[in-house]
Amino acid sequence: MSTTITEQQIPAGTWVVDASHTEVGFVARHLMVSKVRGTFREVSGTVEVAEDVTQSVVDVTAQIASVETGSPDRDTHLKSADFFDAEQFPTMHFVSTSFDGDTLTGDLTIKDVTKPVTFDVDFGGVGQDPWGNTKAGFEATTTVNRKDWGLTWNAAVEGGGVLVSEKITINIDVQLAKQA
After folding, report:
1. 3-state secondary structure string, 109-132?
2. Any idea what DSSP says for residue 78?
3. Of 106, 119, 108, which is closest to residue 150 (Cα–Cα)?
Protein backbone atom coordinates (compact mmCIF):
# COMPACT_ATOMS: atom_id res chain seq x y z
CA MET A 1 0.00 0.00 0.00
CA SER A 2 1.37 3.37 -1.05
CA THR A 3 1.59 6.32 1.31
CA THR A 4 1.15 9.67 -0.46
CA ILE A 5 3.60 12.39 0.49
CA THR A 6 2.21 15.76 1.55
CA GLU A 7 3.70 19.07 2.65
CA GLN A 8 2.67 18.34 6.23
CA GLN A 9 4.74 15.16 6.32
CA ILE A 10 8.12 16.32 5.05
CA PRO A 11 9.60 19.75 5.78
CA ALA A 12 10.73 21.90 2.86
CA GLY A 13 14.45 22.34 2.33
CA THR A 14 17.50 20.52 1.05
CA TRP A 15 17.82 16.83 1.84
CA VAL A 16 20.87 14.73 0.92
CA VAL A 17 21.05 11.01 0.24
CA ASP A 18 22.39 9.13 3.26
CA ALA A 19 24.46 6.63 1.28
CA SER A 20 25.01 4.30 4.23
CA HIS A 21 21.24 3.81 4.52
CA THR A 22 20.35 3.80 0.82
CA GLU A 23 20.21 1.03 -1.74
CA VAL A 24 19.64 1.28 -5.48
CA GLY A 25 18.80 -2.25 -6.51
CA PHE A 26 17.69 -4.09 -9.62
CA VAL A 27 16.21 -7.46 -10.48
CA ALA A 28 16.58 -9.30 -13.79
CA ARG A 29 15.32 -12.69 -14.88
CA HIS A 30 18.13 -15.20 -15.51
CA LEU A 31 17.43 -17.97 -18.05
CA MET A 32 13.82 -16.80 -17.58
CA VAL A 33 13.54 -19.25 -14.66
CA SER A 34 15.07 -17.36 -11.74
CA LYS A 35 16.01 -13.86 -10.64
CA VAL A 36 19.36 -12.15 -10.22
CA ARG A 37 19.51 -9.19 -7.86
CA GLY A 38 22.11 -6.48 -7.75
CA THR A 39 22.82 -3.12 -6.17
CA PHE A 40 24.81 0.00 -6.85
CA ARG A 41 26.70 0.64 -3.60
CA GLU A 42 27.85 4.21 -4.30
CA VAL A 43 24.92 6.61 -4.55
CA SER A 44 24.77 10.36 -3.98
CA GLY A 45 22.23 13.07 -4.52
CA THR A 46 19.86 15.68 -3.22
CA VAL A 47 16.17 16.26 -2.93
CA GLU A 48 15.03 19.87 -2.89
CA VAL A 49 11.69 19.64 -1.10
CA ALA A 50 9.51 22.61 -2.03
CA GLU A 51 6.76 24.18 0.08
CA ASP A 52 4.43 22.64 -2.52
CA VAL A 53 5.82 19.10 -2.38
CA THR A 54 4.76 18.48 -6.00
CA GLN A 55 7.37 21.05 -7.05
CA SER A 56 10.22 19.15 -5.35
CA VAL A 57 13.26 18.08 -7.40
CA VAL A 58 15.21 14.83 -7.05
CA ASP A 59 18.77 14.60 -8.43
CA VAL A 60 20.58 11.29 -7.84
CA THR A 61 23.73 9.69 -9.26
CA ALA A 62 24.97 6.10 -8.94
CA GLN A 63 28.53 4.99 -9.69
CA ILE A 64 28.43 2.15 -12.22
CA ALA A 65 31.69 0.62 -10.92
CA SER A 66 29.97 0.04 -7.56
CA VAL A 67 27.59 -2.61 -8.97
CA GLU A 68 27.44 -5.82 -6.91
CA THR A 69 25.42 -8.96 -7.63
CA GLY A 70 27.14 -11.51 -5.43
CA SER A 71 29.18 -12.83 -8.37
CA PRO A 72 32.51 -11.09 -9.11
CA ASP A 73 32.53 -12.48 -12.67
CA ARG A 74 29.03 -11.17 -13.36
CA ASP A 75 29.91 -7.80 -11.78
CA THR A 76 32.93 -7.51 -14.09
CA HIS A 77 30.74 -8.38 -17.08
CA LEU A 78 28.15 -5.75 -16.09
CA LYS A 79 30.90 -3.11 -15.88
CA SER A 80 32.25 -4.09 -19.33
CA ALA A 81 31.32 -2.64 -22.73
CA ASP A 82 28.80 -5.49 -23.12
CA PHE A 83 26.58 -3.74 -20.58
CA PHE A 84 27.23 -0.47 -18.72
CA ASP A 85 30.75 0.26 -20.02
CA ALA A 86 31.76 1.77 -16.67
CA GLU A 87 35.09 3.01 -17.99
CA GLN A 88 33.48 5.23 -20.63
CA PHE A 89 30.21 5.93 -18.77
CA PRO A 90 31.04 5.91 -15.04
CA THR A 91 27.65 7.08 -13.73
CA MET A 92 23.94 6.79 -14.18
CA HIS A 93 21.90 9.86 -13.34
CA PHE A 94 18.25 10.60 -12.53
CA VAL A 95 16.63 14.04 -12.38
CA SER A 96 12.94 14.36 -11.64
CA THR A 97 10.57 16.33 -13.86
CA SER A 98 7.32 15.88 -11.92
CA PHE A 99 5.95 14.47 -8.69
CA ASP A 100 2.33 14.06 -7.60
CA GLY A 101 2.79 12.57 -4.14
CA ASP A 102 2.55 8.97 -5.37
CA THR A 103 4.55 8.87 -8.59
CA LEU A 104 7.88 10.42 -9.48
CA THR A 105 8.69 10.98 -13.14
CA GLY A 106 12.06 12.02 -14.44
CA ASP A 107 14.90 11.49 -16.85
CA LEU A 108 17.22 8.51 -16.34
CA THR A 109 20.56 8.71 -18.15
CA ILE A 110 22.62 5.57 -18.71
CA LYS A 111 25.46 5.43 -21.27
CA ASP A 112 24.60 8.97 -22.43
CA VAL A 113 21.06 7.86 -23.34
CA THR A 114 18.31 9.74 -21.51
CA LYS A 115 14.80 8.31 -21.27
CA PRO A 116 11.79 9.19 -19.11
CA VAL A 117 10.88 6.80 -16.29
CA THR A 118 8.12 6.84 -13.69
CA PHE A 119 8.56 5.42 -10.20
CA ASP A 120 5.81 4.42 -7.79
CA VAL A 121 6.82 6.05 -4.49
CA ASP A 122 6.02 4.94 -0.95
CA PHE A 123 6.81 7.40 1.83
CA GLY A 124 8.23 5.76 4.94
CA GLY A 125 8.07 8.80 7.20
CA VAL A 126 10.25 11.39 8.92
CA GLY A 127 12.09 10.93 12.21
CA GLN A 128 15.10 11.97 14.23
CA ASP A 129 18.12 9.80 14.80
CA PRO A 130 19.78 9.65 18.27
CA TRP A 131 22.08 12.55 17.30
CA GLY A 132 19.22 14.93 16.48
CA ASN A 133 19.45 14.65 12.69
CA THR A 134 16.16 14.70 10.79
CA LYS A 135 15.81 11.76 8.38
CA ALA A 136 13.17 10.75 5.85
CA GLY A 137 12.66 7.41 4.14
CA PHE A 138 11.21 6.43 0.79
CA GLU A 139 10.87 3.42 -1.44
CA ALA A 140 10.52 3.76 -5.21
CA THR A 141 9.95 1.06 -7.82
CA THR A 142 9.73 0.91 -11.59
CA THR A 143 10.23 -1.53 -14.43
CA VAL A 144 12.22 -0.57 -17.52
CA ASN A 145 13.43 -2.19 -20.73
CA ARG A 146 17.24 -2.22 -20.52
CA LYS A 147 17.53 -2.08 -24.32
CA ASP A 148 16.14 1.48 -24.23
CA TRP A 149 19.53 2.54 -22.80
CA GLY A 150 21.67 0.47 -25.16
CA LEU A 151 22.11 -2.41 -22.70
CA THR A 152 21.53 -4.99 -25.42
CA TRP A 153 23.95 -7.85 -24.72
CA ASN A 154 22.32 -11.26 -24.42
CA ALA A 155 22.95 -14.89 -25.22
CA ALA A 156 20.58 -17.45 -26.67
CA VAL A 157 20.09 -20.58 -24.63
CA GLU A 158 18.99 -24.05 -25.55
CA GLY A 159 15.24 -24.23 -26.07
CA GLY A 160 14.98 -20.77 -27.63
CA GLY A 161 15.21 -18.58 -24.55
CA VAL A 162 17.70 -15.91 -23.59
CA LEU A 163 20.10 -15.55 -20.70
CA VAL A 164 18.97 -12.12 -19.39
CA SER A 165 15.52 -10.54 -19.44
CA GLU A 166 14.95 -7.26 -21.24
CA LYS A 167 12.67 -6.02 -18.47
CA ILE A 168 14.48 -4.93 -15.32
CA THR A 169 12.84 -3.94 -12.05
CA ILE A 170 14.53 -1.06 -10.23
CA ASN A 171 13.98 -0.87 -6.46
CA ILE A 172 15.25 2.13 -4.54
CA ASP A 173 15.27 2.28 -0.75
CA VAL A 174 16.52 5.72 0.25
CA GLN A 175 17.11 7.57 3.48
CA LEU A 176 17.56 11.33 3.28
CA ALA A 177 19.16 13.66 5.82
CA LYS A 178 17.78 17.19 6.15
CA GLN A 179 20.39 19.92 5.81
CA ALA A 180 20.41 22.87 8.20
Report:
1. EECCEEEEEEEEEEEEEEEECCCC
2. H
3. 108
Which DSSP letter does residue 70 get? S
* Degrees to nearest 5, angle at CA 175 with 14 and 13: 15
pLDDT tens per residue, range 109-156:
999 999 999 999 999 999 999 999 999 999 999 999 999 999 887 766
Per residue in 74-113, pLDDT (tens digit) is 999 999 999 999 999 999 999 999 999 899 999 999 999 9
Residue 2 forms part of a structural domain:
no
Q: Contact, 135 vs 124, CB < 8 A?
A: no
Q: Which of 160, 58, 162 is nearest to 108 (CA)?
A: 58
Length of the chain: 180
Contact yes or no for 29/10 (Cβ under 8 A): no
Residue 160 amino acid letter:
G
CATH number of the domain that 21 lies in? 2.40.128.110
Q: How many domains does the chain have?
A: 1
